[in-house]
Design a protein that fits this description.
It is a single chain. By secondary structure, this protein is mostly helical. It has one domain. Helices cover 81% and strands 0% of the residues. 4% of the residues are buried. The mean pLDDT is 91.
């Protein structure tokens, strides 16, 4: 019973983490397209600091597609697929 509760809690945490991180990546992409007022530059810097290391990993792997940066899209897909794989593995433990 304890293992079941622990697995469920880990799955919930993973789901919330991936969902929030995908939203943060989405906000990062949106704020990179527009010029924010000075009072919101701290938010933009925070989003940069949180997202850029993970996106840089994908930029090194992916070839350039002209002026289009596909790394956020690939990064989100990789996060969701990884979450599904981990949840499937954890479901087998139950």
């Amino acid at each position: 019973m304890l293992v079941l509760d622990t697995v469920t809690q880990v799955e919930r945490f993973l789901n919330v983490f991936v969902t929030v991180y995908v939203l943060v990546i989405f906000l990062y992409v949106l704020t990179s397209w527009i010029q924010l007022p000075y009072s919101l530059r701290g938010v933009q810097r925070f989003l940069y600091d949180v997202c850029e290391p993970y996106l840089r990993l994908w930029r090194r792997i992916l070839p350039m597609a002209g002026p289009i940066d596909l790394s956020p899209m690939v990064a989100v897909i990789a996060l969701v697929v990884t979450e599904q794989i981990v949840v499937a593995i954890l479901d087998r433990l139950q």
